[in-house]
From TrEMBL:
InterPro entries: BTB/POZ_dom, SKP1/BTB/POZ_sf. PROSITE patterns: BTB. Residues 11-87 form the BTB domain. It comes from the Eukaryota. This is BTB domain-containing protein. SUPFAM superfamilies: POZ domain. It holds the Pfam family BTB.
Amino acid sequence: MTKRHPEFFFTDTLVAIQIEDTLFNVHKHHLNESEVFLDMFKMPKAGGNNPEEGSSPEHPIRIEGVSASDFAALLTVLYARQFSNNQLAPEASLIIPAFRLANMWNFSALRAYLLPLAEKNLGDVDKIAFAGEFGIKNWLAPAHIHLVQREEPLTTAEAIKLPIDSVLLISRMRERYQAGNSKQDWIFQVGGYYCDHCSGFTTIKAYTCSPCAGCGTASTMALKCHSKSALAQMELPYTDSVLEREVKEWVERGCSFDS
């Protein structure tokens, strides 16, 4: 007595799809994961003797506005999920195009599956491109910070993938970060205590372990500021915390520089 293999006996309908100059023959149940395709398949069939769209390679469903390579990436991930028992993560090069179409056609389960994989497997440059395309704002600051902090500058190939404002930010902040210092205008706080480095003045009076209002360093020697008019341009260390704050502020401004 014969039996049907639990994984590889297919009774599902195949749907023919043409994208650009490429034909695909796809199992319908995979496409049913998409709300867009599911609604399409529920539409009333045209009357008469005309063959149904998608019923054969000679009468495919034609889809415009997407690339054949992106669709192939989507199918690769869909089929890999079905046949891989250990659920291996797709290659990083597949994640972005597959997510793009999963997002466009509302493959909600696939989108939820791919998003954490994108966060884990994409490099910082691809994360910035991904976050910009799909509106994932909380990825932007960490990825930009990592690119500023790393030893290697952006390559030409990486810069091409990024918005011009991202390239400018990374370039400017890398220069400051590598130098280790940042010139800033500092208005002293009335009633605050400042160390010699932050005040730019010679210490004239001692206090017991008063923390500097500029950098927080505890010092027994400090100057007390009595007026808001005290203004000095000084060199402050361009630390990781300063970098993080400035990048986050830039992201909050919409990832663009003031004109």
